[in-house]
Amino acid sequence: xxxxxxxxxxxxxxxxxYIGEMEDSALLELPGRRIAVTTDSFVVEPLFFDxxxxxxxxxAGTVNDLAVSGARPLYxxxxxxxxxGFPLADFERILHSVRDTAAGAGVRIVAGDTKVVRRGEADGxxxxxxxxxxxxxxxxxxxxxxxxxxxxxxxxxLGDHSIHLLSQREGLGFEHRVRSDCxxxxxxxxxxxxACGEDVRCIRDVTRGGLGTVLNEFAQxxxxxxxxxxxALPIRPETxxxxxxxxxxxxxxxxxGNLCLVxxxxxxxxxxxxxxxxxxxxxxxxxxxxxEGQPGxxxxxxxxxxxxxxxxxxxxxxxxxx
Amino acid sequence: xxxxxxxxxxxxxxxxxYIGEMEDSALLELPGRRIAVTTDSFVVEPLFFDxxxxxxxxxAGTVNDLAVSGARPLYxxxxxxxxxGFPLADFERILHSVRDTAAGAGVRIVAGDTKVVRRGEADGxxxxxxxxxxxxxxxxxxxxxxxxxxxxxxxxxLGDHSIHLLSQREGLGFEHRVRSDCxxxxxxxxxxxxACGEDVRCIRDVTRGGLGTVLNEFAQxxxxxxxxxxxALPIRPETxxxxxxxxxxxxxxxxxGNLCLVxxxxxxxxxxxxxxxxxxxxxxxxxxxxxEGQPGxxxxxxxxxxxxxxxxxxxxxxxxxx
Lengths: 322, 322
Hints:
CATH 3.30.1330.10
């Protein structure tokens, strides 16, 4: 594939979700001056899976990063690194997925770039998406704003994305029973913020590092203690079984369509109501709360009634799931 | 290197050019609502060369893309894909270069991302930078606005970057005589626009595809004809010799610190004066003009007085120079 063919294919398939020009930069008029910016590269393996593919993850991941900062996602850039010989049909399938996910989330792709490297110099395809969103709400969502009594919510089953991809990679069989949760959640976030306003303290996309990492960052940033209930965690039995088999802890597995929210106690019901109105967060549940305790720590009451510390996980995490 | 070490290293070395936060997105206040956005991935080989490295190219390239659209570059994101085992010392050297180039250009790195892939799944390091700039001038620089009589300027010696990298790759010896022109040129562009305002029709960063490609795009977009003078092209004898040896045409070689400007005839002297006041564009020269002729074509008067067409180059270009 030549550069010209690749650029032409991208423009053709992205259709009206692509408003880039041939000039060097996209020129855009924003509806305000307060913006959010985020970037992410995607080196997912396998590229295609049940529930999505690298194209869907690349759009949804960056849309979600903007959304959880309180921004309305508007624009994405899309940069592609292709290994020579990458199948055109796979590339087109990924682009269709980029387009569909962008259209669903209501964002436009405004600029693109493609680099082709020789065989063996990349693993098929890597994507980068960088997103720009507009901050229209007066909110300042921050992990520093947690207070004792706040409730911790997760919006869906934990670990499914990682278990699905790991199982597909290794051929364990669980890939047919647990699918990826990959989804753009900006409409979900907008509804929760409409319902609860500044009673939402902060939101985080529970990707690399999993819920355990997110909650440790929350506890440290706010110098609070967080108490989890293991029985409250939404985890599918199949996912728990696969995690046991693989020797991994669901608390640290990456998700691609799961949010963690901290909400004031009196607006928790309103938040859950808003979440349950969306298919992507139909299983949202309160899993813990901010408590008096040693600042910066996360503790969990286990199924058998014991207490354990949920540490910040250092070192190697499972690679190439997001 | 673990993710934590990598993130820590990035934050430490980038210092006050890095204003990212631990939260998912950077929240920024812009001085206006009209912005420019551009993205670029960098898969440069070799990573280090005389005149720069992949870090300098990644910052300068995106800064230049914003600048030539008339924007003042403000913010960059930096996404890194690292091959497992990539030397920490090389990574730090690249980050220092990112910092120095960003500081020189007056831009901040506002968000970052790092992904590590296994050995053999990437070639050392790939970078992506995405830039946001603010459009403060009422100008609308566009390749569609060329008119007969306009003058075509290039700001420096052509082909040096490509010849240097190709020569270093192949060990041809020219790498000691020709160095890369890699540079951030936003201050140069600002001075030209201050001097000439809307008499600057358009500017383009002469990277992949070289001057031949840029001028063909200009001619097609504006449905004008462009006439070049080969003797006016600033090309070093060493570069011409190396290009001959390698069987490549300097007109299509990528540069990393070279602009092509089209300026109205009565402001050409003012533009050259502004350009000559900067070291990076001290050798700026008029190389041609917009003429009556077949719309969409580029012609060149050669050294021996003949006329040739400068075609749009289709198909394979030299890989991994930018």
